[in-house]
Amino acid sequence: MNGTLYEERILSRWNVVIMGIVIIALLVTLVWQLVEGPVGTDPAPNWLLIALIILFVAIGTNFATLTVRVDLHGVTAGYGIIRHNVSWGNIAGCRLDAASAVRYGGWGIRTGWVDGKKRLIYNIIGAPRVVVEKRQGKYDEFAFSTRNPEAVMKAINEGLGKRS
Questions:
Q1: In Å, what is the CA distance from 106 to each residue of 14, 29, 163?
Q2: What is the structure's pLDDT at 102?
Q3: How many CB atoms lie within 10 A of CB 79?
Q4: Parallel, antiparallel, or unpaired for β 129-134 and 91-96?
Q5: Where does the pLDDT of residue 66 fall: very low under 50, low under 70, confident under 90, or very high at 90 and above?
Q6: Cβ neighbours of residue 122 under 8 Å, at least 6 residues apart?
Q7: Which of 9, 42, 73, 134 has minimal Cβ neighbours within 10 Å of its Cβ?
Q8: Which pLDDT belongs to residue 163?
Q9: C-alpha distances in angstroms, 125 versus 105, 145, 146, 148?
Q10: What pLDDT is recorded for position 121?
């Protein structure tokens, strides 16, 4: 065993679709300007369109997949290079998130107050979330989406049991 109790990668289809639409619109605008010439009296410079395309490709690539991992170090969830880790010593427990995703104002990386506790949320559309209760830190709780919340909570509880 390599020390991994649970691992999952979830494609965030809506993030991919939205970023794809933005990138296609920017590409069409750039190609139009290169072929037909500038449209209007104040066109966007080509360098700006290229920079925006690169930016949105990078953002879209980073936020395309949410990775959840429970291993020897604790619980980690993240989008690409942006991750949040809670070590075993800082985990007080876990539970299924009962709050609506609407409460968080959408998907992606969010923060909010739930039942008087400050929560960091990494979520995608259409997937349930697990809440990790923290002992200390900037956030009282960390919630993240998963396709299999029962397996995640079982892995967290197993990890907590091994450290008791």
A1: 11, 28, 35
A2: 78
A3: 21
A4: antiparallel
A5: very high
A6: 66, 77, 78, 79, 84, 108, 109, 142, 143, 144, 145
A7: 42
A8: 59
A9: 11, 9, 10, 14
A10: 96
Q: Give 133's Cβ-side CA count (13 Å radius).
A: 11
**Chain position carrying tokens 């880790």:** 85
Between CA 121 and CA 131 the distance in angstroms is 9
Closest-CA residue to 77 (of 88, 87, 66): 66
- Contact (Cβ atoms closer than 8 angstroms) between residue 57 and residue 23: yes
